[in-house]
Amino acid sequence: MRHNKKINHLGRKAAHRESMLANMASSLILEKRIITTTAKAKALRLYVEPMITRSKDDSTNSRRVVFAQLQNKYAVTELFREVSQKVANRPGGYTRIIKLGLRAGDNADMCMMELVDYNDVYTNGKKAAKATKTTRRGGKKKAEAAKAEEAPVAEAPAEEAKAE
């Protein structure tokens, strides 16, 4: 029985697994997005997210601990300069796994793993607009008023196009 054995060994010895996860973590930090198998991505998520949390505190000790795991000074620099600034207000969940389907050669389940704050597809390259808060008391009236304000703005260019 496998009670409380939560680590996925990925069919590798410990040294090979640690080396592979360190290389994948460095690639993820430097490239912001990697394509790998789902099992490796889930193992990498457990490996890299504590490092990203540690990077929020930019101290010598934090850098040494992260470097001991990554063994790549460029990835450590990128992590503490760029990535830590982007995730400063996020309480966790720094990575996203998007499933891509099955690999043609061996039918392995593939996915794309990315850092959440670096995806321009979901954010459209800018911060998400703050949604208007509605309540049960008069929330509909405020929402209708907001729509009424937006409607004339949207119709104005259409009227100009008709005039031309």
Q: Beta-sheet strand percentage?
A: 5-15%
What pattern of helices and strands is seen along the backbone? HEHHHEEHH
Kindly, what is the distance between the CA atoms of the first and last residues, rounded to a whole number of angstroms? 76 Å
Per CATH, the superfamily of the largest domain is: Ribosomal protein L17
* Helical residues, percent: 40-55%
Total of helices: 6
Please report the total strand number as a whole number. Answer: 3
Counting helices, strands and paired strands, the structural category is alpha+beta
Q: Please give the order of strands in the largest beta sheet.
A: 1-3-2
The Rg value, from CA coordinates, equals 23 Å
Whole-number mean pLDDT: 85
Domain module tally? 2
CATH topology of the largest domain: 50s Ribosomal Protein L17, Chain: A
Shape: globular
* Major beta-sheet overview: 3 strands, antiparallel
CATH class of the largest domain: Alpha Beta
In terms of topology, how is this protein built?
Blueprint: H1 14-31, E1 33-37, H2 38-55, H3 60-70, H4 73-86, E2 95-102, E3 109-115, H5 120-123, H6 139-163
Antiparallel strand pairs: 1-3, 2-3
Helix pairs in contact: 1-2, 1-4, 3-4
Describe this structure in a few short sentences:
With 164 residues, the chain is an alpha+beta fold.
List keywords for this structure.
50s Ribosomal Protein L17, Chain: A; three-stranded antiparallel sheet; 2 domains; 164 residues; 3 strands
What do these coordinates show?
The protein is of the alpha+beta class and 164 residues long. The chain folds into two domains: 14-123, 50s Ribosomal Protein L17, Chain: A (Alpha-Beta Complex); 130-164, no CATH class. Helices cover 55% and strands 12% of the residues. The chain has six helices and three strands. A three-stranded antiparallel sheet has the order 1-3-2. It starts with 13 loop residues before the first helix and ends with a helix. The mean pLDDT is 85.
